[in-house]
Amino acid sequence: MKKLVSLFVLICAFIFSNSLSAQKKGFYENVQKKNVSKVLDDLNLFAAQADYKNYFELFAEESIYIGTEAGEVWNKEEFMAWSKPYFDRGKAWNFTSLKRNIYFSKDGTYAWFDELLDTQMKICRGSGVLEKIGGKWKIRQYVLSVTVPNDVVDEVTKIKAPLEDRVISELKTKK
C-alpha cells in the first residue's frame, strides 16, 4: 500500500511539474509576442510620425527591407537613404495592423511574423524576421507586399505586364 501511495504521489508531482512548465512556457511566449508586437506597432507609429531615428533603430545593423517592386531589396543603409526624403517631408507612410501572426524558434532567439496592413495602397501584407539582440527584438528582414484579390488578378496582371516584362527580360539575361 505504501508503494502504491508513493507511486501516486510521484505521478502527481510529475504531472504538476509538467503543468507548471507548460504554463511558464505559455506565459513567456505571450510576453515575447507582446514584445514583438510592440516593435511592429512602433515601426508603424514611427513611420506615421516621420520619426526617422527611432524607426531605423528598430532594424538590426545587418537587415534587409524588401519593398513592393521587384528591384526594392535594400540593406539598412540603402533603405535609410531611399526613405529619408519621405521622413524629411514630415510624413512617411501610415500603416495599421489589421491581423498579425507571430511565431518563435525553439530557442526563442528568432521570431517571424505575417500581418495584414491597412495602408494607402489598401490591404498589404507585411512579413519578416526579428532576432533578439542584446535583449531587444530587432528586425532582420521586412517584406512589404501588395495583396491582389483573386477576382481581379487577371486585370492587375494586364496592367503591370508592360512594366514587368522589361524587368523579367533583364533578370533573365543577368542569370
From TrEMBL:
UniProt xrefs under SUPFAM superfamilies: NTF2-like
Alphabetical keyword list: Signal
Domain SnoaL-like stretches: 36-148
Leader sequence residues: 1-22
Superkingdom to which the source organism belongs: Bacteria
InterPro entries, sorted: NTF2-like_dom_sf (IPR032710), SnoaL-like (IPR037401)
Protein name as annotated: Nuclear transport factor 2 family protein
